[in-house]
Amino acid sequence: MQLVLYDLRKNQKKMTQEQMAKYLGIATKTYRSKELGNTEFTMDEMFEIARLFNKKVDDIFLPRTYHNGTKEFKHSNGG
To answer: Which of 24, 25, 62, 70 has its CA 20 to 30 A from that of 49?
Structure first.
């Protein structure tokens, strides 16, 4: 789940998933799937969302290998 995005959407902008979907020009069901992490956002969508919240993309969207909210990243070589 995109927890940072969820928090920004609900608490900063007070937007519904339907409103976010409309902002991005996608179906509400599609947006919901992306916010839940079942489907990835496109780069264009990530930049639009970052602009909406006046944030950097990486402040909202963490790499999938981000580990338990720490700044420790898993590397593909196992280290």
So the answer is: 70
Q: At how many degrees (to 10) do helices 43-53 and 17-24 cross? A: 120
Residue 5 backbone class (left: φ over 0; alpha: ψ -120 to 50; beta: rest)? alpha
H helices of 9-55, in order, are 17-24, 28-35, 43-53
Q: How far apart are CA 56 and CA 61, in angstroms?
A: 9
Dump pLDDT digits (tens) for 24-79: 999 999 999 999 999 999 999 999 999 999 999 999 987 655 544 555 444 445 44
Strand partners, 73: 66
